[in-house]
Amino acid sequence: MTHELSPTAATEPLDLVIRDADVLACFDDAGTELAGGWLAIDDGVIVGLGDRTTTPPAAREVVDARGCVVLPGLVNAHQHLYQNLTRAYAPAEQVESLTDWFWTYFTAWARLDADAAAISTTVGLAELALSGCTTSADHLYLHPEPALMDAQIEAARAVGLRFSPVRGSMTIGPDDGGVCPPGLVERLDAVLDETARLVAEYHDPSPDSFVRVGVGPSTLMSSSADAMVESRRLAEALDVRLHSHVADDPDEEAFVRARYGRRPLEVFEDLGWLSDRTWLAHVVYPDEREVAMLAATGVSVAHCPSMTMIDGGLPGGPPPIRPMLDAGVNVGIGCDGATAADHQSLWLETKLAMLLSRQREGRATAMSARDALRMATRGGARALGREGEIGQLSIGANGDVSVWRVDTLPYAGVLADPITGLMQCGPAWAWHTVVGGRFVVRDGQLRTVDVPRSLERHRRASERIQLGR
Ligand SMILES: [Zn+2]
């Protein structure tokens, strides 16, 4: 199968051609895979694709991808970047329940400042870029200082990834029956005003946007029904995405049943949240009716495999991702915060999604490497409201590409299918990560971040957050 150059491609040399890939998997509607594949990017956008039977156009820069698999840049659908300041902070045996977890970590996180928000964003996005990610969501739901998201957005621009930061919030503390520590409870009107300011200042709806701001009360355990409804109305009025956590833990289920007399997803339904504007993190234990409801309303799910495993012993076992996909629910993949995953490799979460599904479903209905990668690309793009713009290699889409060497030690013996090999072998790190035609990672090295300096600054911030000094 071949693809011609876009008629809009200039006769002048193009900006970038990546050529001679062992396989270039487009993750377009047809599932196109191009042997000996090439793609051309000009002015940040993909303008040509082809296989070994066609000759790529001239370009100012030509990258040899022999021995490589070429994929769309991965899309991280759920994240709390600030949490990498507290990696492996509380040993698991000290955190017996979700409520314990909240209180243990919130003590440290209440010290978050703008410098810490910025450097945790730099370090987290850098690690994501090394794992082939070109777009990341982030959900910052505690704001002990103003302007933390301004600092994050500036940091994300410097790293060069596309960024979908969600202005999260917590509005009910213990006095109102919620789990948010009193010092972190925000007034709803202030939350809404600040969210509107961030959207006005930073949100860019254009197809090649680098910043899309969303609205996101944290959970039903820390956000009032009023906050959920008013946040949803604000997202509708501003035409931005809507995000939250739901159905992630037995503690949450018990809390919501006691407060509302309904299951968590039923409460989201009652509050008018179930629409294609919404994407929800976790959704670990939906029943059949709820799966059908998610499919019918167009809600997307951000599946975070490590979080479900680190939480341990969920009553229903791994989440029913295969049944959700079969029912037509859009599912993306997220790393979640470092307290859940303690790493920010989207490649690893994608592999874990594949394995966790196989553990639940068995081989007969196995999730393939391609199924998992489709969630990590197309699924994430749709969750962030960016279908057609990112998450696929097709003419007119943004030039967001991940290139993976499969001629190295972990892949020795992979002959039949390099895409399955990429996901079953590893560990894998991207050889190149290209965002809008620009190299963020090249030859396995970050090109936009000074790693030693960033790590030193991150260590100082972690000490402030964890040790209070
Ligand atoms: Zn989360």
Structure description:
The N and C termini lie far apart (60 Å). With 469 residues, the protein is α/β, with parallel strands linked by helices. The model has no long low-confidence stretch (mean pLDDT 93). The chain folds into two domains: 111 residues, Urease, subunit C, domain 1; 310 residues, Metal-dependent hydrolases (TIM Barrel), CATH 3.20.20. It is globular. Helix content is 36%, strand content 20%. Strands 1, 2, 3, 4, 5, 14, 15, 16 and 17 form a nine-stranded mixed β-sheet that branches. Helix 2 runs parallel beside helix 3 and helix 4 packs parallel to helix 5. Zinc ion binds next to loops.
Characteristics:
2 domains; single chain; 17 strands; 469 residues; 14 helices; globular; nine-stranded mixed beta sheet; four-stranded parallel beta sheet; alpha/beta; TIM Barrel; Urease, subunit C, domain 1; binds zinc ion
Compact overview of the structure:
The chain has helices at 98-109, 114-130, 148-159, 188-202, 225-238, 250-260, 264-270, 288-297, 305-311, 321-327, 346-361, 369-383, 418-424, 451-467; strands spanning 14-25, 33-42, 45-50, 59-64, 68-72, 74-76, 133-140, 162-169, 214-217, 242-246, 278-282, 300-303, 330-333, 401-405, 432-435, 438-442, 445-446. With 469 residues, the chain is α/β, with parallel strands linked by helices.
